Amino acid sequence: MSHLSKIRTVLTDLNWLKLALDDLGCTYANGGTVRRNNEAEAVDLLLETSPNQPVDGELGFKINESGIECVADWHGRAALPNNRFINAVTQRYAYHVVKNKLAEQGFYVDQENIEHGKEIHLVMRRVS
Question: Residues 92, 109: contact at Cβ < 8 Å?
């Protein structure tokens, strides 16, 4: 039986989340409702499409007192498993946070490599 699940994340900022989703090729709308059968949950960001499959309004992100949680019907979503999706979003989120926070401190990206294991390596240097 399908039902809506809420997954806690380490994400805290909706703007960084949007950049991460853009990187992954997802489209989204500000606000909306995740629906499944007779359940509904209001969300701050509703995914419209994912590069792996259409999400049909069944996945979104909601801001709460402890950060951002993912709300979705994961049952029957084999093409978009929750752990791979959340890990990919978290990686791209962290990439943008690190890069931008260090840029605020005078650093710039000298080298950027994405390894075969999808690991991101940044070499940053400070502007003198």
Answer: no
- SS3 of 102, please? helix
* 27 falls within a domain: yes
Contact by Cβ (8 Å): 11, 39: no
The single-letter code of the amino acid at 15 is N
Q: How many domains does the chain have?
A: 1
Tens of pLDDT, residues 56-77: 557 899 999 999 999 987 765 5
**Residue 76 CA to chain centroid, in angstroms?**
20
Q: How far apart are CA 36 and CA 115, in angstroms?
A: 38
User: Which structural domain, as residue segments, surrounds residue 69?
Assistant: 5-93
| Structure-block tokens of residue 62 | 């909601």
Q: Which two tokens stand for residue 11?
A: 């994400």
Global pTM?
A: 0.84
The residue assigned the tokens 């990206």 is 109
